[in-house]
Amino acid sequence: xxxxxxxxxxxxxxxxxxxxxPILQSLVLDHLLLNDGxxxxxxxxxxxxxxxxxxxxxxxxxxxxxxVARGFTAYQHYGAVxxxxxxxxxxxxxxxxxxxxxxxxEPSRDEDTSPYTPALIxxxxxxxxxxxxxxxxxxxxxxxxxxxxxxxxxxAEGYDIPVLVTRNERNEFTEPVATVADHHLECKQTRMGPRxxxxxxxxxxxxxxxxxxxxxxxxxxxxxxxARATQVGVEPxxxxxSTPTPEGVxxxxxxDGETVAATADPLLDAWTASGTGGR
Length: 279
What we know:
Residues 95-116, 234-254 are annotated as: Disordered. By secondary structure, the chain is α/β, with parallel strands linked by helices.
């Protein structure tokens, strides 16, 4: 309810107003909690910081399932992406050998998942090294970035898993990232917390103490007040098709069934209404 589900294919996460390291790490850890298998993280620009990962993670054992490679140049980043199948095979051999020595394997939470094959691939700031490398011209930088995205798309299809990516900037250079993405999530910072919006997900509530929730979206309050009006016998009115005059913006129905004109100030309407104790 609070975090979106990562589906198979490439998911682009755009975070407004910053790099969004906590929300990125939260999505990764949440996916690992719900699925078996390790995550392979090709890092850039310091997104795989162990300090914040340890703070966010509910279990230290969960961190053991995240394998991180770092690329400090464009060629290093591209090489790390190309070496992913080798890293996956090595992880599978190590995990199966350890399970065999222990005499049994880890129980799987899902018949369609495995504790050995990848559950997720993460590539944050997938554009940053290619735009920052002074040894690459613009054409070569775009070509190398395109090859990286093509590799990630191949891994998503081959392993049938999600690939979570972010981009450092939104501009012409990173348009291919949005083009190759199968899913798109946008995160905006609000006073209540990060609000994530996707094709099938939208943050509507924020948790507070004692299991309660705050709700800040206009649509929710609109639906809530409409239901409350029906409960107390006030029929919600629909907006008039024509442009309202300055003297009134529509009509309302009181609990007694009386139709009254409404001004631009509904609180003033209630305050000055006759027969209701108003002035």
